[in-house]
């Protein structure tokens, strides 16, 4: 699929089919794409945790403020937690007063979700979750940045029209 088609069709799925979890081989392709994503000074300052089956169900219950109830039907999740920078990225982060980890996780997440679309999987990037509960499930003290639900949409789930700012409001030519 051409990348522009991926960009046009990828959307946040809010209706997962519990009978169709993400296939292991497709999930592996998504993880490999995320692993190959660029990062500041090639530091890859994150860990990707995979939760499926019973652990996936536990993650689906770690919602914050009753948000994202639709993920109860999803049993596969990729959780991004922070990891250490390498020395170059740590120095650059301090000098520029910039949190490169968040940027790098966002890039890896974009690669993962684009590959999922290419593989015929549906995803939803979650920012509202019970971080304390997820840390407990994972057995980590590291900051949890994103949770991605991965699976298949229910039959008939429509591709929604994208609502984006007008090009002239987003693009400046010099």
Structure description:
The structure is a single chain. The chain is α+β, with helices and mostly antiparallel strands and 174 residues long. The chain has a single domain (22-153), classed as NADH Oxidase, CATH 3.40.109.10. It has seven helices and five strands, in the order αβαβαβααβαβα. The protein has helices spanning 3-9, 24-35, 53-60, 87-96, 100-118, 131-138, 167-170, and strands spanning 16-21, 46-51, 77-82, 122-126, 144-153. Strands 1, 2, 3, 4 and 5 form a five-stranded antiparallel sheet that branches. Helix 2 packs antiparallel against helix 5.
Helix-strand makeup class? alpha+beta
Taken together, the total number of domains comes to 1
Beta strand %: 15-25%
Helix content: 25-40%
**Number of β-strand runs:** 5
Relevant CATH superfamily: NADH Oxidase
CATH architecture annotation name: 3-Layer(aba) Sandwich
Q: If you average the pLDDT, what whole number results?
A: 95
Q: Give me the number of helical elements.
A: 7
Apparent shape? globular
Order of helices and strands: HEHEHEHHEHEH
Biggest sheet character: 5 strands, antiparallel
* CATH C-level label: Alpha Beta
Taking all Cα atoms into account, the compactness measure Rg is 17 Å
CATH topology heading: NADH Oxidase
Stretches where pLDDT is under 50 for at least 5 consecutive residues are none
Question: What separation lies between the terminal Cα atoms?
Answer: 32 Å
